[in-house]
Structures are given as C-alpha cells and as structure tokens.
Amino acid sequence: ASLRIQIYCLKYPKLRPSFLTDKAMESAIKYINKKFPNIDFRGNIQHLTSIQRQKSEVLAATASYYDSFLDVIEFRVIAINFDFTKNYLDLIITYTSVIVTLSRIDDKKALVGMFNCAHEMSNGSSDPSYPRLGQMFVEYEHPWKKLTEEFGPHTRSVTAALVSLNMVYPRRNLPAEQWRSAQLLSLLSAPAAMLEPACCNTVSLPSRHLLYLSLAEGERERKGGIGFLLCHTSLNTNQASQELWKMALRSGLYLTLTRDEVLNIHKVSEDLFDCFKGYSKRIADIKECREHALVNSGAMHRERRHFLRGALKELFKVLEDEPGLLGPKALFVFMALSFSRDEVLWLVRHSENMPKIKTPDDYIDNQMAELLFYMEKLRGLMKKYNHVVQRYHVQYLAQFDALVLNDTIQNIYVCPEEESVLMSSFVSNLSALSVKQVENKEEFDFRALRLDWLRLQAYTSVNKAPLPIKDYTDLAKVMNMIQFHTRMVDSVEELLQETSEVSILCFYPRVFEKMFCQSSEEMTMKRYLMAFPLVCTHFSQCGHPICPEEVKAMEKRSLRLCVTFLEQIAKLTSTVVLEICAEQCNLNDQLQPKHCAETISAARHRKQKKPVPKKGEVQKEKPGAESLRKDRSVVTNVDKMHLMLTELCTCFSLCSDFIVFDHIIVPTEFLLSHLEIRLSEIIVRMANYNQTTQEIARPSDLLTKLRAYTASLHSLSGYINVDVTRLVKSVLLQQTQPLDSRGGPTMTTLYTNWYLESLLRQASNSLIVHCPTMHCFVNQTTDNDPSFRAEEFSDISELQALAELIGPYGLKFLSENLMWHITSQISELKKLVIENMDVLVQMKNNFDKPEEMANLKKRLTGGENVLKRMTIIGVILSFRSMAQDCLKDVMILLKHCPYLMGPIECLRDFISPEDDIKVTLSIFELASAAGYTCDIDPTLVTAIANMQTDNTSVDEEYKLSCLLLAYIAVSLPTLALDPNSLYSREHGGHNNNIHCLATAINQLAAAMFTVQNKNIAQQLKEFLLMASSTLLQLGQNVERMESKNRESIYLLLHMIVEESPFLSQDMLESCFPYVLLRNAYREVYRSFIVTLG
Questions:
Q1: How far apart are the first and last CA of the chain?
Q2: Which segments show compositional bias classed as Basic residues (predicted)?
Q3: Is the pLDDT of residue 190 over 70?
C-alpha cells in the first residue's frame, strides 16, 4: 500500500520537483524523453548543459523519485511468494495498480533520465539500476498487455483464488429488496434470539482478516474485474469464473486504483480483448454488462442506501438503549458499517465520473448526511462501550471458544508435534483469560496468537501436509471465529478503521462539498449535517510517512473542508436564530407606547358612532393576534423557523469536539463566531445611521430592540449547550469600542459622530438650546422645520439609554472626541489672546478705573469671538456632564459592581485639590469613569496637557490663561447687545446658550491652572472681581442699548459662582451687590407668563 501511495504522489504536479517546469531545463527534458532510455550523455552535451550546471541540485531533487521507481522493480521480484488467498489477491491487485498508475505518470522518463544524467556527470558512470529501470518503462508503455503475459503462468492459482470469492461476493451483492425481506441487520426481527451471539459462515474462510467485513465492495470488484483481466483465458474455460467476472462488471463502471485514480473497467477490458483472437463473445459480454450497469446499478445502489439509512438508525437506537447487546451483536455493527462504507465509496467514484444516462438522479443522494451520521454514531457507540465488548468476548474466549477448540483438537487423529504445540498453546492462552483483566484495565495483545494461527495455516496448506487443513474444516471455522473474537478484545479501533473509514472523500472534495450542499437543502437532513465535518477526522488515517509532502497537503485540504462545512452549518443556524430574534423584536416593537395612540384615540371616541370603513381598508390587528390559532395544523413562519432551528441544533449534539490532524475542532465556537459577527452587523444596522441626512435611531429605541434580541437569543440555550451570555457580553463590549473585532464601525462610533455632527453642531449655532430645567437640549422656534427634535435624543431617558448602550468605555471615547473639539477652540482662543495681549495686560491692571477701561475697550478686538468659542466649549461640557450623570443614574455600574461604587464616591469626597495633584487626578479619573462629577475634570486636564504649545514655557502658558479669563470678563457686557441673550425661565437658561459659559469658565480654568500647578481659587476670584466690575459699569449705562438684556447677563455671574466649587456667594456679594441679582431675577421672571391647569 505504501508503494502504491508513493507512485500515486509522483503523478500530481504539486508534489513534483519545480525544475520540471523550468524553461532552462526544457530542451534537456525534451531530449531525454526523445532518446530514453538510450541517452548519449557525452556526445550531445549541448542538450544537457542546463543539467551540467545544476547537477548537484538535480541529483538531490530526483533521488527520491528514482528510488521509488526502483522499488517497483523490487516489488515485481517478490510477487510469487504469497500463498494465502486474500493476501495473494491483495498482492496481485496492488501490483497491477502500481504498474497502471506508473504508466500514467507523464514525467517518469524525464525524472529518471535527469537523475542518471546528473549521476554520470557527478560520478563518471551511470547508476547500475538505470538499464533495468529504463527497460521496465519501455516494456510497460502499454501495461495491460505486458501484465497479461506476466500472469500467464499463474492463471491457475489466480483463478482458484478469484473463484473462492463466490462464497462472499454474491451475498454482498444482493439488491435492497432481498436485504429487506431477510431483515438484514435487524435486532428486532427475532426478539427471542437477541442475546444469541451473531455469527457468519464466511468466518470459515482461511484468510488473515474477516473477509465478510474487510472485503469492501470496491475491493471485490477490483479483484474480480482486474484479476480476470490478468488471467483472461479462464473466462473461456471456467463457467464459475465467467459468472463472477460478469457480476463484477455489472456492479459499476469504475474501479479504484489508488485514491481518486480510477479505471474504466469496461473500456480497458474491451480494448485488451480486441488484441486477442476468439474473444468476440467476451467483448459482447462486456458491452452487455456495461449496458446493464448503466441501466440498473445506479438505482440498485440508491435503494441500498435507502435501506441502510433505516437499518442503521434502528440498530443504533436499539444499541444505544441497550449497550449490553454490543457484546453478542458486535458483528452486526461491523456489517452495517461495512455495507454503508461500500455504498458511500461506490457513489463517490461514480459521481465524480458520472456517465451520460437518462436517470442522473440515481447518482445524486441528498440524504447522504443521514447515512454518514449513523455511521459516526455507531463508531462512537463502539468506542464508548469498548469495555462492554471486551468483557463479553473475554468471557466468550475463555468459557466457550477454548472448550470448543479443545474438543476439536481431540477429534484430530494425526497431529504432528509442531502443530500440536501451537494448538495446545491456543487452548492454554484462551483458558487463562478472566474478567478481572478487563476490570483492572489490562492491555490485551493477541497478535502473537493470530500470527501462530497464520503459521499453522502455512503448515497445513502445503502439498502433502501431515495435517491438511482442507480435511479439518471445523478447526478452520473455530480458529477464524477465535481470531475475530480476539480482535474484538484488542483491536476494535483497527477493525472500525477497516470497515468504516471513508477517507477517500478527501480526494474527492468537489463531490464531498456537493453532497453537503444537497443535504443542507433538505429540511429533514439538517440534523445530520455535522457528520460531514466529522468525516474529516478519517482523513488523517490515509496518509503515509513515506510521503510527508502529501500528508501536509491532505492536512490543509481536510481542515479547509472541515472549516467550510462548519462555517456553512453555523451560517444556516445563525441565520435562523437571528430571523427568530428579528421576528420577536418586531412583536416587541408593537407593544411600545408610541404605537398605542390609535388605540387610545379609539377608546376616547368609543361612544361616538363608528365611521364606515373605507372600501379595501384593512383594520390594524392588535398585538398578540398572531398567537390566536383556529386550527393546530396552521403553521406560521415562526413555527417553521423554530422547527428548522431544532433540526440544526440537533446536529451539534453529535459531538462537543473532535480532532482533525492534531487540530481540536469545537463546532459550537463556529456558531458563536457567526452569531457574534452577524449580531454586531445587526446592531449597527438597527442604529439606522445615515451620514448624508444625519439620521439615526433614538438610543431608547435601539436599546429596546437590543433587549428583545438578547432575550430571544437566550432561548438558544434551550436547544444547544452554548454560552449565550458570553456571546452577548462579547458583542456588547465590542460595541463600546470605536471599532469591533473585524474593524467595522460600532454604535459607539455612530452615536459619537451623530451627537458631534448634528446635535452639538446645531447647539453651537444656537439652533438648539441647552435646557438645564429639563436636563436636555431643545430646538429653537424657527421658520424651518428641524430635521429632528433635540429633546428626543438628549433627555434623561435617551442619555440613560445611550449610557447603557455604549457603557463607560463608549462614554470615554465620546469624551475624547469632545475634548478634541474643545482643544481646537482653546487653540483659537489663545491666538486671540496673543493678538490682544498688550491691551489685556493694561485692562487687567486697570479694571477698577472706568475711564481707562472705556478707552482700552475700544482698542480690544474679537470679544464676541471669544465668548462664542467659550459658549461652544460650555455647550460641549454641558452635554458631557449630562451623559456622565446618566451613566451613574442608570446604575449600570451599580448592577455590575455594587460594592465598588461606594468606595469610589468616598475617595472622591475625601480627596482635595490641595493634595498631591497626581493622586488627586488619578482618583478623579476613576470617579469620572464611574459617572461621578469632580471638581477638576481629569479628561480635560489631560487634553490641555497634551496640546501643542510650540515650546512655550509654563509661565507663558500661565500668563495666557490669566489673560484669557480677563478677556472673557471684560467681554461679558457685549452679550447684552444680543437679543437672544434673554434669560428663559422655562429653559432655565439663555436662548443663545451663554449660560453654558458658567460651565466652560469653571471647568476650563480649573483644568488650565491644574496643568500649570497654580491656585485655581485665587485666579477665579480675580476673574470674579474683574467680571463684577465690568458688569457694574454696564449698569451705569441706563439709556444705552447695552442695558437691554442687562438683568439676564447679571444672572450669568450668579451661575458662574453657583457652579464653581472654588467660589462662594460670600465672594460674589463682596464684589457684586446682591440687590442687583435679586432685581435681575425679578425682572426676568416678570415677563414669564404662568399658565395654570
């Protein structure tokens, strides 16, 4: 077998040396192929210069191929040394397969010729074996004719061996109707005999293996078809040979040589017999058999597969329920596996080479998954209950077989000494067995006993043997039964491999994938689909150490097929799961309060006369109407999806994990991976973000849908053992990051972009107003309809939903993006301060001198710009503060880590800015991440510290910060000129968002002076003095336009002090009369119209 694999590997381009396709070698290869085997290596050196230049590389690369061809010669020499039937036939068929496969290798002459050429150039002489190898290539140019000549002298022995298959072949070649009528493989057909040990007459065949099990249909056809080609003369003289030959030809059209190398037996036979005289009848027989195979074999094998599906299912169900029956009925399992394997192999090789017939459906099986599934189930059952099989057969060997064998030996009249010693050792070894050995988990090894039995056959099968085996058939029957029973004890795995491995599918990937696709389209087959990836575990058993390159290629192909199947199963399952989730989400959406307006309206007007419904108008169904059933036979779409989900999830129960070429495969992980990807895509899709129109779903709506999805997803745990909680946590955690695991956008990114580009951008232009009273943003009243209602996206419930969706990580990302916009504004503010630095220095030093301040103010430029930018910063910080508060209010962290929140709050309250600033900022960062408000914003401090300062010193930065506060203070009176600066009691702020200046001034000053390690309270106190002075000067201008919204601006000063942790009302009253504030509040509230009930 290893030689056959070795020669097979030489045929494929991927495993051949690369220099065969090298253009530099082209002329040398053509010359060698033309002159082979008589190549003049010295006279025509110009043709072989390329080999001369690379002789060492050529010699090394072709050495292994050359040795493989030499192995074929050695194989030919020992072909007459085997005597036993099966081994002899195996040897003949293997030899023939090697020779035929060798004849199909296109580059064999080039490889051998190049090796010998390089050998002669390196060593000065040709390789000694080269003439024999060249002669073999020439002789076997047309292999079949040469093979028939070689086997002519062996016709008698080969024919005798082939005719012995008459005991096995007809029984294995029965149609499904006869199998069904005989109730083959059924344990329930004879309940009374259920505990009796299964046996078969074919165990009497003197072969090394149990022919009934190990002789696959393909092997039988190969032996019959190829064997009779080699000794074709017996077909004209031996009727039994002719019948067996016809039976083999009628079974199918193609025979397997090696793996996916097939032989069209009818064509080869016809071409060969055309060369001989007197074979016209045999040619007619071939045509008749071919026509019979075309018409009948496809349907016959289809019916066999149909029968085996039911038989294997019944056998598995019985044995699963009563595993103790595996002892007496183990043979049934191996027979079932062997029959099933035969049908799989037949279909595979004929599907790949499907003939042109009227009924191609016979070669298509969309129910192959079920057959493979129960084959795997039976294999698993045998492995799981191996100890049961061992225990039964150890007792059988010791308490029955040993006694029967002893009685049989006693009935032998003449027994030579050597044979007597062997048989006595059989009895003594079997009698010594006990159940305790099984209970103690001792390892059994009966290979020596089986080898002795083979030796005894050799002694008793030769001519004129003192103890001829043919005269003592009872001995052969007993010993072959013992041989089978010993294999049940020590080599169940090996027997399973012989009877059920279908590794041939590795070499027919197209057919294998097609079978999977056909099965996956059938509803009833979905529960069996896991059999396809599990079959890939067989592929590691068909490799051979003699060809490691092929093993690597098979490993890649096996893993590719396995992963492809699992991906498809996972895709089907995840699609159904998410369709069910989508349906449940739609049903849940119908229960939302926003959909009850029609119902409320109808209830209010119930007493009124109902309007006549319009023609064709369909009344809207109430939620829950889909659950009303008048007939149980009515199946809804959801019912179908649940049924499909049940079928798909059942297939995952076949096994929790399996190994393919040392790779541990866990099928459920593929499902979780698919669900993770799809769920992430669905969440982003449900956000419904449109960058062009700047539309997005409300956070509360998305959260409701997401909760419906997760609730429905958790029902998956009832179908299959998967950790749905881990899946949901993984997906939602990814959604709190800027990008998911595949680099795609997340809802964190979408909502961050939307709030920045839509809500805050319009708020910066005063189209949207921050409303402290209602803790939200609201739209300004304008002539144009707004694209969205700001309060629907910024009220407490929406921001709580946003905080729950994107979590602390998402809010951190949102804060970082907000900080980028703030630092951009700070950079512009610094430029304005630098432009007016001289004026600002003078104003700061003379703020208590009204005349000088009036003159300096005329020289000051950009005051409105400064306030506008500070307002933008205030709006951004106000929004961030609202979002942070909702993170704490929604109690997300309190639910996940309730014992952590208390200590965090205590730390925040305990620490003070006067302590070590690094420690303070670390604690503030922790508290800020938990949603707590801090005196100093650590995120803003970090953003300002990271700003590019063009190598300015700390003192210069400090000076700019002080002048910025002065700039703001002296510019405050200009706000009175803006008609939108009017304070609104309804909103609790100003219509142009200047009330956000309070937040901006306090947080920006605290952050800047923290970075510069200066006293925050001192600087804010100076700002308060300067602002109070300028606003008091505003009060003196009674008749000027500046005083129009004077009271509203006064309130701004009060807001700054109220929001500051560093300023107090006492400080304010010391520099700004409280009576002015009281009068200002009375003035602004006087214009507010109060409406009651």
A1: 98
A2: 603-613
A3: yes
